[in-house]
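Bug report (template v2)

What were you trying to do?
Predict the complex of my protein with 4'-deoxy-4'-aminopyridoxal-5'-phosphate.

What happened?
Run completed; filing so the output is reviewed.

Input:
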Amino acid sequence: MTTSAAGTGSRAPSVLEAPPPAFSPDQIADIAERLFGVGGRAVNLGSERDQTYLIEEDGGPGAVLKISNSGEDPAVLDLELEAILHIAGVDPSLPVARPRVARPRVTRPRVARPHAAGTAAVIHDAGLGDHAGPDGGPASEAYRPTVQGSDGTHFVRLFDRMVGHTAAASELDDDALRDFGATQARLNLALRSFFHPAAGRELLWNLKHATKLRPLLAYIADARRRELVEAVLDRYDQRVAPAWSSLRAQVVHGDLSLDNVLVDDRGRITGIVDFGDTAHTAQIADLAVSLASLLRGRTGQDAFRSARLVIDGYMSGSPLEPGELAVLGDLVSARMAAIVAISAWRVARYPENAQYIQAWDDDSWALLELFAGYGPDAVAREFGAPRPPVATAPLSARRRQLLGSALTDLTYRRPVHVVRGQGVWLYEADGSRLLDAYNNVPVVGHCHPRVTEAVVRQTRAVNTHARYLYEPLVELAERLVGSMPAGADLDTVTLVNSGSEANDLAWRIATATSGHSGGLVTAFAYHGVSSVIADLSPEEWPEGFRPTNVETIAAPGTGPSVKAEMERALGVLSERGAGLAATYIDGGFTSDGILIPASTDVAEIVDQTQRAGGLFIADEVQAGHGRLGRDLWAFVGYGITPDVVTLGKPMGNGYPVAAVITRKELMDRFAATTEFFSTFGGNPVAAQAALAVLDVIEDERIVEHASRVGGVLIAALADLQGRFPAVAEVRGQGLLVGIELSTTTDPRRPDPELAQRVVEAMRERGVLIGRTGRHSNVLKIRPPLVFAQEHAERLVDTLAVVLDEQTVARR
Ligand code: PMP
């Protein structure tokens, strides 16, 4: 389909200006024999401006001879040649028709027999054996000897004959469509390091130059159709042209349409021919060209469905960027516009060739009509363009309608409608930016590139379950065991999917190994959602509910001494006939209002638990992964040795992954009566996410960072305590901080309403925090650990303004 850009005065004389060569089949057979040593009958394959013939070799594979138009630029032929040789080197199994070197046999210049039309052909002695390329291979001239026709000199090339047949779009089934996309991706990948100066030539078919189609509109006679194409070009100007310079660009085939591929009986590509449109352009433009061809004859949703299968195939080999998908629909439209506009122009010039020129017009018009019916934005989305965010109010109404009442509550009166996150920032649909001082899951920052890439790459490689052998799970288990304190014997890992599941498994290990059924937790603890763990989560207990096998102790520092509390609680359990199976402790006592007790208090809990025959379970779901800034694991800071450690929320920075780490001996006893397997637990992607999180924590020195910034934050908040009587206490460690709010007159009287107003007002001022504690009067500050000093300052400044506003307003 090579057509030089209209009116651009490209350096080479337009091949369209010179008549096609006119050698007879006999002469062509003769040329093939003499120049390439391939003898056989010459059968016309059809070509608009060159002569392309199949040479049917007796007893041989045959070959395709191309005699170029006398206007052909040798630099362009070199571009084609080198592109093909490059592909053959990078991806040798891609079925690209390869050119052959002319026979290095020196012959006298010889006048071929005149054919019926009386054209004489002179086959040149090119002295081919003398040419050598810079790498010692044949020089490009060796691939393109010349023949002399009556109208001038013509380059001649001989290509391998590819097996297969041409197919109509309707013959390709879904698998063939995907295969087409995948093959195209390989072709693009094979060319991505290729350079040739002639690739910068201007071709009207290159969608990079789509604006140059505008003068051709005049050739479209039907006014409505002209408007259709005009609208496509307008849209191109508005949406594609401004984005062009940010699209990935390279040399591409340029016309990987069904006209230029051969397929087997299943529609799989067996041959790629005709690099005549090879040029430098946007990578995505190459896919648009094939799509326009593959959609021919397809109607309605089937066209878009088919396109998506091709795109899937492409992405299986080379993922596309959102910016590329955003313009793909417009580029497919532009390609169809190019087909009909160029065809209208050329038919006016060469009416005798109308049938060939207009071959794809009807299908292209039909697709243009189809697309116009949908509208360009809808078409863009059908081709995978990212959707613009929907409005917040209707979205929350839809959500309310579909989710059960247990889940419908959103945090904040004005819902946080997130569309994007980065580091400590969340971005809303309306474009506003919120400082995230609340979410502990994105521990190394929202969308950390290392974690994101780890997840994406492993997803592309394979994701399966833990009954198959793969390295990431084993490596993660080794890393986790290696992160436990020496001598703790915490040497056995089970990977699961959530903190709840981890705590649930811990409970099963505890009951199985202790033979007991009692559990101890702090007064307002939260450990998860499963039935068993909900029973161990008093924060969630309905009024008056208390499972008989569970007793609570006051969180250290909030009631009687820990020693007395433990003795009392164990007594209560035994009165109820339940020996102690396990005590669960969240190292940050988050739900109890955020507390960092003395190590001796925590050690006392461990000691009494173990003496009662129970297991001490360090629930690190909140406080682990460096949150407290002292150590990677909170329990290490308390100097204790748990029997079981459970990890969760931050472990995959948002990818669901959790773990139970215990001693082998305990696991063996559990396993004696139970087989445990969780389908997603420790899947390769989850394991890679968790490994990436551990890597980033180390590389970015996150634990030290949390310690330092947390120190600054807590000190600055403590200053607020002096300024605002409602701030009864500031406590915490690292980046887990609680601010207890009380009435301004009595620091012992919790003020949950004030806490709520503060949280809402902070959100309105762009800072996300939460509330916790039995009375919900403790402001909960628990940001991603990449929270920096500047963020801490912003948080404190905003809080000061809000406290001022809220307490003054109330007085
Ligand atoms: N333990 C603690 C201390 C938690 O804070 C949570 C969740 N907030 C869980 C366990 C349960 O984790 P998940 O929601 O992932 O099941």
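What did the reviewer find?
Confidence is low (pLDDT under 50) at residues 2-13, 106-120, 125-130. Residues 535 and 547 are 6 Å apart (CA to CA).
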